[in-house]
Amino acid sequence: MQGRHTIKDEDWERIKDLLPGQRGGHGRPAEDNRRFINAVLWIAKTGAPWRDLPEHLGNWNSAWRRFDRWARKGVWQQVLKALEDPDLEWLIIDSTIIRAHPCAAGARKGAGGTGGQGDQALGRSRGGFGTKIHAAVNGLGLPVNLLLTAGQEADINQAENLIQDIPCEAVIGDKAFDSKKFVDSVEAKGAEAVIPSLSNRKEQREYDTDLYKERNLVERFWSKIKQFRRVATRYEKTARNFLAFVQVASIVVLLR
Predict the structure, then answer these.
(1) Span 115-138, mean pLDDT?
(2) Burial class (CB in 10 A: 0-12, 13-18, 19+), 55
(3) CA distances to 44, 47, 62, 99 from 129, in Å
(4) b (16+ CB within 10 A) / e for 161-195
(5) The three-state (H, E, C) secondary structure of 133-185, written as one string
(6) Which pLDDT score, from 0 to 100, does residue 202 have?
(7) Positive/negative CA dihedral, 177, 180, 181, 185
(8) Across residues 145-171, what is the average pLDDT?
(9) What CATH code is assigned to 86-237?
(10) Averaged over 213-221, what is the pLDDT?
(11) Where in the sequence of the chain do the CATH 3.30.420 domains occur?
(12) CB within 8 A of 8, min separation 6: which ones?
């Protein structure tokens, strides 16, 4: 029976063979992957603590350990990449700041961190204590690349990482990405930089104003993944597991 926060039959058919525990593979076949996916979706959508997981979705501790293990092994990222849409004519880049709940602080140093950007991608900005999600979406508003940094990180610092090794015809971004070095790197890869100049620049760069209107696609993407309460507020102590929830929400967006 399908519930409000459970995966649809047609969506399950698309991802079931991408998950660990397939017969004929290494290790024991996973038991009831579908119930586990439904458990993760319930937590992601409701924002509830793992301990509050309904009994019919399994033991909360077993589900959390499995979620953590899949995050460490990069399973959610692998599923995301397998579902990715090939339409890469445009790359639209942006970021959003996510407020962190007080319980997100206090992780062991180096445990599931980002290895650089504030270790657990937590920091203070004008929006308070939180994490910044950097994203590149394609011309359909579907996720292509996702990165986490501390909340105070400038967007331009992650711009090249967002588009690295991703072929496209145009890169669309707001004034936060107005940097000669970045624009030159976009053009060097044969793409058009659709990025308006900062107002204090003496020479304003020309850009395709009609194409720039498509930047709303990344805003729509933020709106969709923030319907998942575990994304709209960060409860995870580790950057790795918070990114995993962002990836889970993005997988649902791709399945739609």
Answers:
(1) 82
(2) exposed
(3) 21, 18, 30, 6
(4) ebbeeeebebbbbbeebbbeebbebbeeeebbbbb
(5) EEEEECCCCCEEEEEEEECCCCHHHHHHHHHCCCCCCEEECCHHHCCHHHHHH
(6) 84
(7) positive
(8) 95
(9) 3.30.420
(10) 97
(11) 86-237
(12) 2
Residues 6+ apart with CB under 8 A from 1: none
Tell the residue number behind the tokens 């990180």, with chain if given: 153
**What is the phi/psi pair of residue 128, to 5°?**
105, -160
Cα radius of gyration rounded to whole Å, the chain: 19
Looking at residue 154, its pLDDT comes to 95
pTM: 0.91
What does the pLDDT look like over 225-255, one tens digit per residue? 999 999 999 999 999 999 999 999 999 999 9
Classify burial at 131, counting beta carbons within 10 Å of its beta carbon; exposed 0-12, middle 13-18, buried 19 or more.
Answer: buried
The tens digit of pLDDT for each residue in 70-83 reads 999 999 999 999 99
Per-residue pLDDT at 116: 42
Structure tokens at 37: 């996916």
| Structure tokens, 193 | 């930089």
CA pair distance 245, 76, nearest whole angstrom: 9
Distances (CA, A) of 110 to 117, 159, 169: 12, 25, 38
For residue 189, give the amino acid letter. Answer: K
Tell me which residue of 199, 196, 200, 201 sits closest to 183, measured CA to CA: 196
Among 77, 75, 76, 50, CA closest to 65: 50
Cα dist from 180 to 38, 155, 177, whole Å: 46, 14, 9
